UniProtKB/TrEMBL annotation, chain A:
The lineage of its organism: Bacteria, Pseudomonadati, Balneolota, Balneolia, Balneolales. Residues 218-240 are annotated as: Disordered. It comes from the Bacteria. Keywords: Electron transport, Transport. The keyword Electron transport applies. This is Electron transfer flavoprotein subunit beta. Residues 221-240 have a biased composition (Basic and acidic residues). Residues 21-209 form the Electron transfer flavoprotein alpha/beta-subunit N-terminal domain. GO terms for molecular function: electron transfer activity. Belongs to the ETF beta-subunit/FixA family. InterPro entries: ETF_a/b_N (IPR014730), ETF_b (IPR012255), ETF_beta_N (IPR033948), Rossmann-like_a/b/a_fold (IPR014729). SUPFAM superfamilies: Adenine nucleotide alpha hydrolases-like. The keyword Electron transport applies. It comes from Fodinibius sediminis.
Automatic annotation (TrEMBL), chain B:
Gene3D superfamilies: HUPs (3.40.50.620), TPP-binding domain (3.40.50.1220). Belongs to the ETF alpha-subunit/FixB family. PROSITE patterns: ETF_ALPHA (PS00696). GO terms for molecular function: electron transfer activity; flavin adenine dinucleotide binding. This is Electron transfer flavoprotein subunit alpha. It comes from the Bacteria. One of its GO terms (biological process) is fatty acid beta-oxidation using acyl-CoA dehydrogenase. Its cofactor is FAD. The electron transfer flavoprotein serves as a specific electron acceptor for other dehydrogenases. It transfers the electrons to the main respiratory chain via ETF-ubiquinone oxidoreductase (ETF dehydrogenase).
Length: 255, 324
């Protein structure tokens, strides 16, 4: 099976963030492989280890994102393509257009990606790309298996889960509930340095100017109004528990 | 004057309250800006719901009725939306942000070449499109966004707006719709329903959420007793859904559901930012945790420091007394 996994470098949300003049400033330039994409890489590796095949990762981003590609290669991906961009603020539809143009002349069984980016939580690019490429797709997958030339997806829906069989080629977006991504081994890290990584300049893809124009823009950031910590009760559980129960009734009026 | 279209989501034979929240908001926006608001219901029994939707004041209701919509499948849903959009020619289509919406929103935007903003917490119409607020960075930060274009799609978090009725005698327009196997593109083989009689967490007034601290059988027993007394929905942290202790549909947080109940009781949950991302807009938060430094206490209105096995029995007992 040939897997392409679309991956993204995202700021580490655990690192301290500040807002200055409406811009997000991170004191560190700590970046990570998007957790949802890491699950997509992991699952592609598991399926190709079982059924044979190849995993190639594709990343759109500036030069410094190579670090993230190397992480995926160290996990075990066989090769990588880096679509190098200047640092511009693209929205999901621009990312999807770039990827669509990249995949135009490619052969594959499955394109996978994370269900959303950890930083923006937009969750749009996957199904946009499927639409551009006219592929059957599923989102929010929590388990994958391959059988009889199909990809079988367990999708987390609103209430229950759905088992969906997709004909190949197809696209699937993955939840981090799918697996626990492996930590690269020392050997994996060594090997990753010798794995093929092709860099394509964005211009080389000859994408229509209009497809590179974002239809949405972030105009600013602000702190979320902080919730104040309320009353904290330490002491005899028998007493504090009853006291809080009564406050929920008499003070907060929520029971 | 242009048309603002609201998608009405149906789940378990009921209209999702969050869709009516969106419709209420859109109607107010339409009034302010001189537009008209319309609604679309896509369901196996779509016509059953038109009466209730009329209570919220759209000027037209489109129905697309077909047995294929008994279960969610993205390809026929997209085909139906495309047909309705062709007919209604809206400048804006608004959705409640459900898993079904998340499944199709990007694809629909690509198909319609529309600008799209997902999972917003508020939005307003502007001259060129919309302005919207979205929580980002695991909901630690709010981003301000603009979307422009001839057509804009937006999905809205549940609990963002209040319901407001304003009855109309909206015209009901049935859209002719058929599907063949080719349209399906994928085969839905099985539905694994979530266990137990679950209360829809996105609509629940009260939620009792269990974390790793309440992992064992006794903890689970206490959680369900507490939920029973309060007539609450049960939710969980990822620690418990991951361990298979709780149904995966019950996960609350960045990966799971976003909820905004009146009362949220977090039991044995540390308060990791990815969990908090899903529950921080609850009106009243109660935390029960034996670690006085657990981050959940930073956002709790009432924090009880103690072992949940000691705290819950008297807590439940007192709530029972209050209820009777
Ligand atoms: C991309 C990403 C997405 C994520 N999405 C989600 C999500 O949607 N939802 C989510 O919940 N998590 C999510 N997580 C995971 C999250 O980071 C935490 O790991 C998880 O929320 C921890 O669950 P917990 O609080 O139950 O467990 P822990 O962090 O282990 O906390 C257990 C708590 O229970 C307390 N405790 C233990 N025993 C007792 C007792 N007897 N009495 C009282 N207190 C006790 C402890 O003091 C501790 O505070 C995500 C992580 C990532 C990276």
């Amino acid at each position: 099976m040939k897997f392409y996994v679309c991956i993204k470098q995202v700021p580490d949300i655990d690192a301290p963030i500040q807002i200055k003049n409406g811009n997000l400033i991170q004191d560190t330039d700590r970046t990570v492989l998007n957790a949802y994409d890491a699950s997509a890489v992991e699952e592609a590796l598991v399926l190709t280890e079982k059924h044979g095949g190849e995993v190639e990762v594709v990343l759109i981003g500036p030069n410094q994102a190579k670090e993230t590609i190397r992480k995926a290669l160290a996990m075990g991906a066989h090769k990588a393509t880096h679509i190098e961009t200047r640092e511009e603020s693209y929205d999901s539809s621009v990312y999807a257009s770039i990827l669509a143009s990249f995949f135009e002349d490619k052969d594959y069984d499955v394109i996978s990606c994370g269900k959303q980016s950890q930083d923006t939580d937009a969750g749009l690019t996957g199904s946009m790309l499927a639409e551009h490429l006219d592929l059957p797709y599923s989102t929010n997958a929590v388990a994958l298996s391959a059988q009889n030339g199909q990809l079988r997806v367990k999708r987390q829906g609103d209430a229950g889960q759905e088992l969906i069989a997709l004909p190949l080629p197809c696209l699937v977006s993955c939840s981090n509930d799918m697996n626990e991504p492996r930590i690269p081994s020392l050997k994996g890290i060594m090997q990753s340095k010798r794995k093929p990584m092709e860099t394509i300049a964005l211009d080389a893809l000859e994408i229509d100017e209009s497809a590179l124009e974002a239809k949405t823009a972030v105009t600013g950031y602000r702190e979320k109004p902080k919730r104040e910590a309320g009353q904290k009760f330490e002491g005899e559980p028998e007493e504090t528990a009853r006291q809080v129960a009564r406050l929920l009734d008499e003070e907060a009026n929520v029971v | 004057m242009s048309t603002l279209l609201t998608h009405i989501a149906i789940s378990d034979g009921k209209i999702k309250r969050s869709s009516l929240e969106v419709l209420s908001h859109l109607r107010r926006q339409a009034e302010q800006h001189g537009h008209q608001v319309e609604a679309v219901i896509i369901d196996a029994e779509a016509s059953r719901y038109t009466g209730q939707v009329q209570q919220y004041g759209p000027s037209k209701i489109y129905t697309v009725e077909n047995p294929v919509f008994k279960n969610h499948l993205n390809a026929p849903l997209l085909k139906a939306l495309e047909k309705v959009i062709e007919q209604a020619d809206p400048s804006l289509v608004a959705f409640a942000s459900t898993e079904s919406t998340k499944d199709i929103l990007g694809a629909l935007a690509a198909r319609e070449e529309a600008a799209v903003l997902s999972d917003v917490s508020t939005f307003e119409l502007t001259e060129e499109g919309i302005r919207a607020t979205r929580p980002v960075m695991a909901a630690k930060i709010l981003s301000e966004n603009e979307a422009r274009g001839d057509m804009i799609l937006v999905s809205v978090r549940s609990g963002s707006y209040d319901l407001e009725e304003q009855a109309s005698d909206a015209e009901v327009i049935e859209i002719d719709f058929s599907v063949d196997d080719q349209d399906l593109r994928a085969t839905l083989e099985e539905i694994i329903s979530s266990s137990g009689d679950t209360i829809d967490l996105s609509e629940a007034e009260t939620i009792v959420a269990a974390g790793r601290g309440a992992k064992d059988e006794k903890g689970q027993q206490l959680i369900s007793e507490l939920a029973d007394v309060l007539n609450a929905g049960v939710g969980a942290s990822r620690a418990l859904t991951e361990a298979g202790v709780m149904d995966p549909s019950l996960q609350i947080g960045q990966t799971g559901k976003v909820v905004s109940p009146q009362l949220y009781i977090a039991v044995g949950i540390s308060g990791a930012i990815q969990h908090v991302a899903g529950m921080a807009s609850s009106k009243v938060i109660v935390a029960i945790n034996k670690d006085p430094d657990a981050p959940i206490f930073d956002i709790a209105d009432y924090g009880i420091v103690g072992d949940l096995y000691d705290v819950l029995p008297p807590f439940i007992d007192e709530l029972k007394k209050i209820a009777s």
